[in-house]
Amino acid sequence: MSGLPFKSYASFLRELFPGRKETRKVVLDAGFRCPNLDGTRGTGGCSYCDNRSFSPVAGTRKSVAEQLDEGIARLKAKRPDAGVLAYLQPWSNTYGAPERLRAVYESILADERVDGLAIGTRPDCVDEGVRDLLEELAERKPIVLELGLQSANDRTLARIGRGHTAAEWADARALFRDGTPAKNPRVSLAAHVILGLPGETPEDWKTTARFLAAHPVESVKIHPLHVVKGTRLAEEWERGEFALPTLEEYARGVAEFASILPRSTAVERVSGETPSDMLLAPAWSGDRNAIVRAVLAALEETGRF
Ligand code: SF4
């Protein structure tokens, strides 16, 4: 993470793509959906979920090829030499028939402008078949599998309606990592976590960090909880059922969290973007620079790093 004393995502990407000084994500929606919304695991989804709030392409009617053309054109206009990490971002991008997964992934990897593929998904959408497919395709170009965890506390996962447990996340990771060395280290693993979930204290955040230290992955995204209009979480927040951390509390949490992670784990980000017309709170969450400054101050205060 640029500006912070953690292993940066940029350096992780330079290791993954040694021929590239810089690689950027190009976000794609291939039309996959989510078992926590379609009734397979649940119908309500995660309480904080509105895919449009965290992915600019969610729900697009454009084909993957059109999205790639547009996304790569936008990137190259600003950064002509940047490599391209195609990123299947919204919903659960390993949730589908095996032949459809293969067709989508192969079509993206076959594009010679694409250097690698990142795939966001849930742990309960990863099985041996998905693992074997990804390890096979990673022989062609690097693959990053982003597994949503959010919290390692099952009580929290139940409260926010995630529809899976921490043990299921560990099982999904183990498909790629048990019997180290990994069968194919080019399938890099990433975890998503949220600090500030209802009912959690900074001690719970540290529990999640210790869980990730015990089940290490190559990179982690840390987000503050965003309360998005129209979600169940927004109703709970408006009823006063939980309080959000202040910027300083969040920053201290990030400092402690990152200090517990292995030094080899890259921190991709410590902030997220929700369009301002969708965000109810916290007001500080859109100011990435202020978050970085606060995390640096917290690191100094705690003597970490
Ligand atoms: S797993 Fe992702 S897409 Fe599915 S309900 Fe939760 S946040 Fe939404």
In short:
The protein has 305 residues and is of the alpha/beta class.
As a percent range, the share of helical residues equals 25-40%
Provide the structure class: alpha/beta
The 3D shape can be described as globular
**Count of individual domains:** 1
* CATH fold-level assignment: TIM Barrel
- Over the alpha carbons, how many angstroms does the gyration radius reach? 18 Å
Spell the H/E element sequence: EHEHHEHEHEHHEHEEHHEEH
Separate helix tally:
11
The share of residues in extended strands comes to 15-25%
CATH homologous superfamily annotation? Aldolase class I
- Please give the alpha-carbon distance between the first and last residues: 14 Å
Q: What does this protein structure show overall?
A:
This protein is α/β, with parallel strands linked by helices and 305 residues long. It has one domain (7-302): Alpha-Beta Barrel (TIM Barrel). It contains eleven helices and ten strands. It has helices at residues 9-16, 51-54, 64-78, 98-109, 128-137, 154-159, 166-177, 202-214, 232-238, 247-260, 288-302; strands at 7-8, 23-28, 83-88, 116-121, 143-150, 187-195, 219-224, 227-228, 266-269, 279-281. It has an eight-stranded parallel sheet with strand order 1-9-7-6-5-4-3-2, with helices on both faces. Strand 6 (187-195), helix 8 and strand 7 form a beta-alpha-beta unit. The mean pLDDT is 93. The structure holds iron/sulfur cluster. Iron/sulfur cluster (SF4) binds next to loops.
